[in-house]
Amino acid sequence: MLQFHQTAFDREFDKILTDVQTMAQQVEQAIERSMEALYDNNTDLAHKIIAEDAKVNKLRYDVESECLALIATQQPTAGDLRAVIAAMHIVVELERIGDHVKGIAKTVIMMEEEPLLKTFKKIRKMGGLSHEMLRDVIDAFVERDAEKARTIAMRDPEMDDLYHVVFEKLVKVMAHKPELVTRATYLMWCSHNLERIADRVTNIAERVIFMATGTFGDLDNALA
Amino acid sequence: MRKGKPVILVRNLDFYYGASRALSGIQLDIKKHLVTALIGPSGCGKSTFLRCLNRMNDTIANTRVEGSILLDGEDIYAPEYDLADLRRRVGMVFQKPNPFPKSVFDNVAFGPRMLGIASGKTELEEMVFSSLEQVGLWQELHEHLKEDALNLSLGQQQQLCLARVLAVRPEIILMDEPASALDPIATAHLEQLIFKLKEAYTIVIVTHNMQQAARVSDFTGFFWMGELVEYNPTNQLFTRPAKELTETYITGRMG
Fold it and tell me: Is residue B1 situated within a structural domain?
């Protein structure tokens, strides 16, 4: 009977998976905190988020080096090779998601001087959704689950809808209350960053599908 | 001479050592001027299959072939098929270099002399030159043609054996683990040579070294327990194999 065994590749790749998960958890936490900073006008927290992004960037390079070493020493093929390549793409997306979160933190700091405008609940909803999508797509990656990845990508339109609602509302505010234009613009940036996070989660989902099935698919187009 | 056109068609090939079946239902096309690699664990039938392609297995007693192998449309197992001609058209290089205990020149000249395909001394010399040149040995050895071939390094001996095959102007070259006795430098050299030679020849190579198969071949066949599990373009087989069994083997998870 055919037997399967663990390989050196499996052992090394487990470490990479753990690092990707750690990195994702840090980014998820940053999304959550950025919403907190936004809603509480907490600039100290915003500064902290910006400072901690460096850790995420470092993890990205750590994972890249581990992947390179794995390719050089183990010469992975087939699903193994696709998994390493997926990990390399995913950490780049995670790093960019970190940058979007940093963007939100920066606007929180810039808004400090502006007259107050009650922040829309829908932006927090966008934050929650992007956080959930990210958590789930990393699970799908670890479980090599293409079906799960597809389901996550299907939530992207939900995010786009929220973004449009927020956008329209902010335009209305700008039209009627000129003193709030600057703050409204900042809020627009925040929601734009959140919408971009969901796009990057969709990119990760595409990578997971490629890793699991060996076929490339553009989920944006598939859903359009 | 169209590249990629099937030159050998294997159809429903079964092979028996006595009562035990070593190959069953093999079906594949070997394509012209491309390199086909055959991989699989020991005893999977890949070398047996290779030796079917020029009927080397005929020399083993109590073996039997069913099905057919067509070379340019003719069944090489047909009773009237010219065996000497087959062996000339389909040459073979083995795992261990096996030069004759003769001079470098005589090794390469052996085939043309035996088959009487050189019209005179000049043509014979020309054949030896061109064969040694093609395998990259002329530069190193043209002043040592009278030396005993057994004094060459292992890598050179393997190149010489390849030159000996080329001297009879084959169309297809079978290689059975040709690099397994060679060091990494000689191996790299041989792989370069394979790449160069496919311009003019069709090559089928059996190798235990999966990375070597991936590096040198255009098509790869994975054998397992006497069956051809998968036969696909090499890039495809090594990045997204069609069969789970292939994936298990090439990722080193087969127990």
Answer: no
CATH (domain of B88): 3.40.50.300
Does residue B42 fall inside a structural domain? yes
Q: Helix, strand or coil for residue A1?
A: coil
Q: Which domain holds residue B178?
A: 6-250
User: Could you tell me which residues are beta bridge partners of residue B227?
Assistant: B224
- All domains of chain A, ordered by start, with CATH? 8-223 (1.20.58.220)
**Chain B residues closer than 8 Å to A80 by CB:** 251
Q: Nearest C-alpha of chain B: how many angstroms from A218?
A: 18
B174 assigned to some structural domain: yes
CB contact under 8 A, A214 and B211: no
- What is the rounded CA–CA span in Å between residue B5 and residue B241? 23
Query: CA of B197: how far to CAs of A82, A105, B50, B162, B227, in Å?
Result: 32, 62, 19, 10, 29
Instruction: Assess if residue B255 is contained within a domain.
Output: no
Q: What is the pLDDT along chain B (255 residues), one digit of tens a residue?
A: 578 899 999 999 999 999 999 999 999 999 999 999 999 999 999 999 999 999 999 989 999 999 999 999 999 999 999 999 999 999 999 999 999 999 999 999 999 999 888 889 999 999 999 999 999 999 999 999 999 999 999 999 999 999 999 999 999 999 999 999 888 988 998 999 999 999 999 999 999 999 999 999 999 999 999 999 999 999 999 999 999 999 999 999 887
Q: How far apart are CA A89 and CA A209, in angstroms?
A: 13
Looking at the structure of chain B, the number of domains it has is: 1
Q: Which of A3, A78, A214 minimises the CB distance to B251?
A: A78
The interface predicted TM-score of the complex, written ipTM, equals 0.75
Burial of B251 (0-12, 13-18, 19+ CB in 10 A): buried
The model carries a pTM of 0.85
Q: CA A59: distance to chain centroid?
A: 15
